[in-house]
């Protein structure tokens, strides 16, 4: 619009904008009101950009099929440093609550109403721009933004690509960013450039960004950096672009490479493109609909001939979509049986044309289709259906968990988030939270990859968690169970476990070795070699535990379909407790706003003695240290210090004394009430002014019994929305951890990562202990 009206219109735009700010000041009863005051107000807003938000400007488009990937990755990364990040879209599509705003709300579980996440539609914005009502447009956007910002400490604002404005979209976005007092992050799409093989390609990318950088800086908007999206996988190009941006003094924070997963077409894209319906419910619809489409096949041949055209997919996350007439029930039933078999041919979906199957076959078909293969009904004939699918593009949606996870991983791997953090959060101290704790946990697991055995290898949630662990590269996995059954289930759930080791206890070459090891550990209790072998074949938890004891695995996670007793008992019998720790206990990592606390014991010991309570305190402190939490241990009771007496208080006092004597290097205090343990002001009062390194600053809280601990962690979790990670078992020679039978896939992933980090920490501690005697001998010799 501005380009069309020429220089005069541009001057009017700027004058109206300054006038508009002046009028807004009057309406808000702000001091001043003159033209210079308006400019001062405007510029001061950019000077305080650190406390407002970050404006993401797509220099090219920003509405492509995977353009949301950068914003998803950015929000995911910022959540670790600034919990409660909000999302705002000044102008979005054709309706309030447009696709992008709705996507971010669903992915990040934002509590905002969709109307508060967006200022206006493209239609309304275009009307305002074409009628030279720029001040009205900016005022509406600013008011909507203030409403959104009221619920968040920090907001990511995603710019617009308003149709009909052309090249002046850059100026419009710069004006909006300036009005909102936000810094800017420039994102350019390298895929939109031409001639990747041409040496001028890098300059084209840089020049495209340079224009936006100049416009934003001219409008007094701080540019914190630039991200290049969909760069070809070539280190030389990345290095050249980095050099060119450095010469222009434009901060370069990284490039996200082209990725086939982000650009892939999934079953849900087929469903939407055809306006089709699903004939029958499938197990785990989210996984089924997010399966990647490898190719389309029109099934008009006989079933036996059609099967010859189905390729063998080595990647189970991909599959073929077969298009066939609804009257070909023979093909449909044959494909369902193929999908549920161990055949390496992978199907993503079946699309039926020409209506529903014949009524006589519906009942039989319904019974056969209650699996994981989506069966879609297209309203178009076969030829038109195939033609429509030829041009389908894949988009990132809230129902595409693999794409969302991939976008987050690519951002973490390729973007220097610390550059962005330093620029926009320099006035904000980073406080620990669940997102940051989990990120640190996963990073720590990757540093020293351990091998974790999963006895419930053919359990669906465990299998999907295994796929997530492998995709993230958190550790090595061993799945116990029937190899064919596990691989068939993996194909049905489209989970890639190709790098995992699958061990069938019945066929394991180490069965005799494990049986003998089990026998040796329990022969004093009447165990025989034959009985040991029998138990290992009957109970996967015993088999997995012996693998850990033998050193063939570093840790074990079980409990999705087994009780706590079934998981822990084998560990107590075979792995046994650590020297000096008479009891196995547990902790939860309680991720509260701004901090992570360690609660113990909340799952195992019902009424520990003073000696056992001291052991729990020492073990919990070591666990906290292993996960990067400085242990300050509070021994909890219903009284603080010597304010009261009684047998329950005395137990805690005795436990505190025992723990201090056993580990004088630890900061341990007790008895303390919960409020005196975590609140510095209350601690100062109840400790009678005595300065104490633990009171008011405790990070590890030890409950006197299971009744107190279990109810407290659940009360805190339910009342505050805190994330409880655990339970993590401690006190064993090697890590074995228990799952709740109601656990989710995410819970299993977290527990496996916790176990891997725990295993690495225990190895380091053992190495240190082994080195101490050698150091003592060397000192004696000297």
Automatic annotation (TrEMBL):
Its EC number is 2.3.1.8. It comes from the Eukaryota. Residues 269-390 form the DRTGG domain. SUPFAM superfamilies: HprK N-terminal domain-like, Isocitrate/Isopropylmalate dehydrogenase-like, P-loop containing nucleoside triphosphate hydrolases. Gene3D superfamilies: 3.40.50.10950, HprK N-terminal domain-like, Isocitrate/Isopropylmalate dehydrogenase-like, P-loop containing nucleotide triphosphate hydrolases. Residues 437-756 form the Phosphate acetyl/butaryl transferase domain. This is Phosphate acetyltransferase.
């Amino acid at each position: 619009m501005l380009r069309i009206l020429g220089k005069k219109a541009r001057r009017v735009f700027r004058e109206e904008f300054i006038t508009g700010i002046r009028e807004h000041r009057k309406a808000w009863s702000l001091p001043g009101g003159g033209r210079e005051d308006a400019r001062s107000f405007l510029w001061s807003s950019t000077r305080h950009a650190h406390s407002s938000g970050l404006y993401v400007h797509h220099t090219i488009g920003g509405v492509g099929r995977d353009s949301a990937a950068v914003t998803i990755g950015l929000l995911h990364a910022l959540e670790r440093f600034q919990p409660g990040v909000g999302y705002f879209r000044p102008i979005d599509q054709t309706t309030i609550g447009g696709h992008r705003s709705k996507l971010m709300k669903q992915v990040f579980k934002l509590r905002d109403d969709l109307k508060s996440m967006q200022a206006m539609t493209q239609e309304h914005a275009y009307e305002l721009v074409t009628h030279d009502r720029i001040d009205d447009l900016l005022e509406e956007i600013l008011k909507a933004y203030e409403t959104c910002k009221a619920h968040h400490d920090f907001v990511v604002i995603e710019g617009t690509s308003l149709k009909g404005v052309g090249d002046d979209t850059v100026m419009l976005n710069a004006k909006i960013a300036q009005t909102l007092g936000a810094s800017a992050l420039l994102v350019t799409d390298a895929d939109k450039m031409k001639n990747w093989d041409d040496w001028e390609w890098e300059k084209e990318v840089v020049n495209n960004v340079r224009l936006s950088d100049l416009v934003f800086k001219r409008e007094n908007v701080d540019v914190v950096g630039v991200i290049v999206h969909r760069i070809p996988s070539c280190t030389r190009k990345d290095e050249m672009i980095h050099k060119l941006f450095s010469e222009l003094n434009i901060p370069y924070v990284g490039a996200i490479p082209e990725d086939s997963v982000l650009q892939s077409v999934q079953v849900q894209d087929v469903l939407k493109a055809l306006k089709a319906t699903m004939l029958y419910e499938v197990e785990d619809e989210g996984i089924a609909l997010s399966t990647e489409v490898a190719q389309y096949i029109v099934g008009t041949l006989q079933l036996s001939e059609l099967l010859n055209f189905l390729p063998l997919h080595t990647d189970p996350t991909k599959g073929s979509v077969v298009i066939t007439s609804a009257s070909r029930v023979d093909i449909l039933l044959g494909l369902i049986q193929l999908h549920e078999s161990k055949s390496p041919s992978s199907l993503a979906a079946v699309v039926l044309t020409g209506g529903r199957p014949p009524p006589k076959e519906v009942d039989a078909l319904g019974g056969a289709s209650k699996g994981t293969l989506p069966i879609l009904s297209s309203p178009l004939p076969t030829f038109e259906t195939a033609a429509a699918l030829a041009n389908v593009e894949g988009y990132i949606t809230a129902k595409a968990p693999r794409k969302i996870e991939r976008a987050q991983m690519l951002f973490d791997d390729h973007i220097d988030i610390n550059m962005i953090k330093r620029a926009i959060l320099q006035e904000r101290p980073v406080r620990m939270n669940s997102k940051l704790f989990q990120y640190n946990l996963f990073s720590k697991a990757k540093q020293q990859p351990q091998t974790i055995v999963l006895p419930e290898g053919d359990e669906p949630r465990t299998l999907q968690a295994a796929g997530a662990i492998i995709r993230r590269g958190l550790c090595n996995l061993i799945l116990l169970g029937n190899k064919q059954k596990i691989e068939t289930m993996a194909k049905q759930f489209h989970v890639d476990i190709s790098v995992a080791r699958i061990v069938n206890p019945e066929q394991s070459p180490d069965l005799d070795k494990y049986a003998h090891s089990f026998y040796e550990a329990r022969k004093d209790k009447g165990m025989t070699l034959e009985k040991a072998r029998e138990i290992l074949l009957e109970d996967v938890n015993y088999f997995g535990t012996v693998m850990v004891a033998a050193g063939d695995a570093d840790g074990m996670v079980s409990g999705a379909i087994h009780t706590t007793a079934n998981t822990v008992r084998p560990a107590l019998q075979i792995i046994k407790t650590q020297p000096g720790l008479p009891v196995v206990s547990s902790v939860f990592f309680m991720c509260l706003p701004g901090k992570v606390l360690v609660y113990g014991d909340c799952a195992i010991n019902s009424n520990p003695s003073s000696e056992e309570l001291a052991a729990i305190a020492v073990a919990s402190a070591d666990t906290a240290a292993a996960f990067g939490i400085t242990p300050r241990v509070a021994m909890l009771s219903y009284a603080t210090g010597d304010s009261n007496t009684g047998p329950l208080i005395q137990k805690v006092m005795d436990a505190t004394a025992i723990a201090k004597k056993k580990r004088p290097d630890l900061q341990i205090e007790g008895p303390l009430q919960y409020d005196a343990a975590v609140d510095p002001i209350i601690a100062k009062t109840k400790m009678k002014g005595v300065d104490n390194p633990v009171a008011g600053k405790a990070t590890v809280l030890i409950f006197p019994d299971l009744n107190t601990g279990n109810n407290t962690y659940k009360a805190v979790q339910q009342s505050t929305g805190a994330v409880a990670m655990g339970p993590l078992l401690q006190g064993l020679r090697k890590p074995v951890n228990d799952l709740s039978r109601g656990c989710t896939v995410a819970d299993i992933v977290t527990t496996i990562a916790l176990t891997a980090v725990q295993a690495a920490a225990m190895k380091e501690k053992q190495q240190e202990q082994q080195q101490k005697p050698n150091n003592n001998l060397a000192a004696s010799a000297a």
